[in-house]
Amino acid sequence: MTTNARRRPDAEAESFRCARCGDTVSADAYGTQHRNHCPRCLWSLHVDDRPGDRASGCGGRMEPIAIWVRDDEWVLVHRCQRCEALRPNRIAGDDSPVALLTLAARALANPPFPLDRPMA
Length: 120
Ligand SMILES: [Zn+2]
Ligand SMILES: [Zn+2]
Fold this sequence. Notes:
Elements: H1 9-14, E1 16-17, E2 24-25, E3 44-45, E4 61-70, E5 73-80, E6 86-90, H2 97-109
Antiparallel strand pairs: 1-2, 3-4, 4-5, 5-6
The chain binds zinc ion (2 copies).
The site of one zinc ion (ZN) has 8 residues, from loops.
């Protein structure tokens, strides 16, 4: 008998499958009220106009393109591959540290000028 089983329909309805890596992502995550990106690869889906409103009809995949340091807090900047919208999203407590650091280091790893010259 499971008549007293506690169900969490809200959390279940909010979970989604990552369009990038296929992981099932629960929206009910530590450190955020509106988890909208995958903690493993950091990709998101364009479903919100404002965080959590699910009002966008776009549905495009959103690539994490940068880390923005806002008031000493890391914010992921996502860019929609379909409509090119840019969206800031707070990182969540269980986002992959390796994925975050890889993204943050991307600019340093690909400087648009040579590093082996003395600084002017
Ligand atoms: Zn993913
Ligand atoms: Zn979009």
